[in-house]
Design brief:
This protein has a domain of about 230 residues: 3-Layer(aba) Sandwich (D-Maltodextrin-Binding Protein, domain 2). About 40% of the residues lie in helices and about 15% in strands. The chain is built from 19 helices and 13 strands. The strands form 4 sheets. Strands 3, 6, 7, 10, 11, 12 and 13 form a 7-stranded mixed beta sheet that branches.
Length: about 450
């Protein structure tokens, strides 16, 4: 009996050893503790691998450090440039590691190009590090496909001095308040608009959606998936109409928008705040970093950041978006593994994270402390928040209205998002250029065209 037990035990040990030897180093990584990131000691069993990544990495030393850690992996840069309208035709050119907006997960999965990273997320502990709300935007059918790189939130940036000079101690808290305030803050002789948002087509649709979210629009209203697997547009509704009526009023009732609005892109919109040409600006909080970097003489202490005004239901909603790293599903298994851990190293290696923060001390263009969406949670999130506070070189006290507000985050539209933005942007362009435009008719026409030309063509 003892002999049989010993043989059985020996066989079980041998079987376990064989299973372990067949696993990749990533599989053999110790389970991740909450708030920690786990890297394997070796990638793909040490086999030679070459991966391509979007753009030649700016910090070649960082690539060298990664290749020192994993000498069997060679990293080369790619000049591939993602664009949603050309993506399907250029699939063969997509590198191992590529990037796309948060809006385009559906496109990635329908094309079968985004690799399933679920097991890698678990092994590395990323599922315990990322903000669950953000992680849900790169997940579908119980699988995780992307690694969020950055995330932004929309809010209301404002010129503190301009508001004070006009008799206001704080920015508007409702959209009803915003119109009259913007009118009073507008000074045509000085070329100052009371309120500004992006006016060019895609940007107008993007910012128009951020406004509509506060009037009750849900990102899931914009496009829904029917029981037959087809998609149906649904943005022609009362909530969107209320937002379009607000835009019509801010233009024609209050005359508070920039005269050149249709040429107003993200750069121009942020520039207007930086140069004193707009008193209140709808923008992502990260654009305050851009202002610091682009306009070093601008006094950041004069710019505040608040949540977007509350809608009719009293809720404040912020559109959340950003960029995601994907791994090409058509790559080999070894390349997928190497691509994942390359991206993990770039974003989460403790030495790399600290080096980036430390480099800000000697970089006059570095911007730390802008109001952004909290990407990470738990111990890791606290660690990043503490580092940000330690290295902050922006007036974080000016953002307390935003930081202390109860804000509902609302993701960007997830299906044909860029095409939808173009459709809504066309509606906004008509409203702000023609006083006689009927928002009801314009919305219906845009939705019908979007349905026929985009959604009905999707497979």
């Amino acid at each position: 009996m003892k002999t049989k037990s010993f043989v059985l035990f020996f066989n079980l040990v041998l079987l376990a050893a064989l299973i372990l030897s067949a696993c990749t180093p990533a599989d053999r990584a110790a389970p991740a503790a909450a708030g920690s990131i786990v890297f394997p000691t070796q990638i793909a069993g040490g086999r030679d691998i070459e991966i391509s990544v979007v753009g030649v990495p700016a910090d070649s030393n960082m690539v060298a450090r990664f290749q020192t850690k994993y000498p069997n992996v060679k990293v080369t840069g790619s000049d591939y440039n993602y664009a949603p309208d050309t993506f399907p035709a250029l699939v063969a050119q997509v590198p191992t590691v590529f990037e796309a907006p948060l809006t385009d997960l559906d496109l990635m999965t329908r094309q079968g190009l985004a690799a399933d990273l679920t097991t890698y997320f678990t092994a590395a502990g990323l599922d315990k590090v990322y903000n669950p709300a953000l992680l849900s935007l790169v997940s579908a059918d119980g699988k995780t496909y992307g690694m969020p790189i950055d995330a932004y939130v929309m809010g209301l940036a404002y010129n503190i001095k301009m508001l004070k000079d006009a008799g206001y101690d704080a920015p508007p808290t409702t959209w009803d308040e915003l119109g009259p305030m913007a009118q009073k803050l507008t000074n045509r002789d000085a070329g100052v608009a009371g309120f500004s948002f992006i006016g060019e087509t895609y940007g107008a649709g993007w910012h128009g959606t951020a406004i509509a979210y506060n009037f009750g629009l849900k990102n899931t209203d914009i496009v829904t998936k029917r029981s037959d697997g087809k998609y149906a547009a649904g943005f022609d509704n009362d909530q969107m109409l209320a937002a379009m009526n607000f835009i019509r009023d801010i233009q024609w009732k209050y005359d508070a928008l920039p005269k050149e609005l249709l040429q107003w892109d993200q750069v121009t919109n942020s520039q207007a705040l930086a140069t004193g040409k707009a008193a209140m600006v709808l923008m992502a909080g990260s654009q305050l970093s851009w202002i610091k970097q682009t306009y070093p003489d601008a006094d950041l202490n004069n710019f505040g950041f608040a949540p977007l005004p509350a809608g009719p239901d009293g809720k404040m909603v912020s559109l959340v978006g950003g960029n995601v790293a994907y791994i090409n599903a058509k790559a080999t298994a070894d390349q997928i593994e190497a691509g994942f851990y390359y991206r993990l190293f770039v974003q989460f290696d403790e030495g790399e994270v600290k080096a980036r923060f430390e480099a800000t001390k000697t970089d006059p263009t570095a911007a730390i402390g802008a109001p952004d969406y909290p990407m990470y949670v738990g111990d890791y999130g606290k660690k990043i928040a503490d580092l940000t506070k330690q290295y902050a070189n922006m007036p974080v006290d000016n953002y307390t209205l935003f930081d202390n507000a109860t804000i509902t985050p609302m993701p960007e539209p997830q299906i044909a998002g860029q095409d939808y933005y173009a459709a809504l942007g066309g509606v906004i362009s008509k409203i702000v250029t023609d006083k006689n435009t009927d928002p009801v008719a314009a919305l219906k026409a845009a939705q019908d065209t979007f349905q026929t030309n985009v959604l009905d063509q999707m497979k």
